[in-house]
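Researcher: Next sequence.
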Amino acid sequence: MDLMKHIATVDDFPIPGIAFKDITTLLEHPAAFSHCIDTLVETYAGEDFDKIVAFGARGFLFGAPMAYKLAKPLVLFRKAGKLPRETASTSYKGEYAPETIEIHRSSVEPGDRFVLVDDVSADGECFYAACKLLESLGAVVHSCAVLIQFLDLGSPERLAGYKVNRLLGVKKDD
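Model: Next structure:
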């Protein structure tokens, strides 16, 4: 299935010069969304990992059905101040502004093997920061799963030390 047919590109959003990949059009197409989830589940079926961690909010849309179908716990990365219990956090240079993400400390045990899930990885900074935070808590990064990875904005280079399973590799002008 050509998933790019189901992803809208919105020029100059959220700032001038950005060609935003809008996945809401993919979510509105049940066959395309099902294909994404089924492909991710097939990729991870039988793999040796303990938990799925998804980034809010669009990563939840992929991580939750994966966790359900693979019978794995779903752990959340959220922006600062959104989680109610004790958290661990990290900050990084976001695509548009500095960002801080948090995870519940109680969701991470030493030795836990995580699959990280999000919809897009542009420069790889968010995934990289999350990987380093998990590792600092004693966890192991099994891999990163992403719907769209930009190939020319730094993501492959930034995540070179980690296994990345992407459904689409695109360039900023695609």
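Model: The longest helix spans residues 30-44. The chain has five helices and nine strands.
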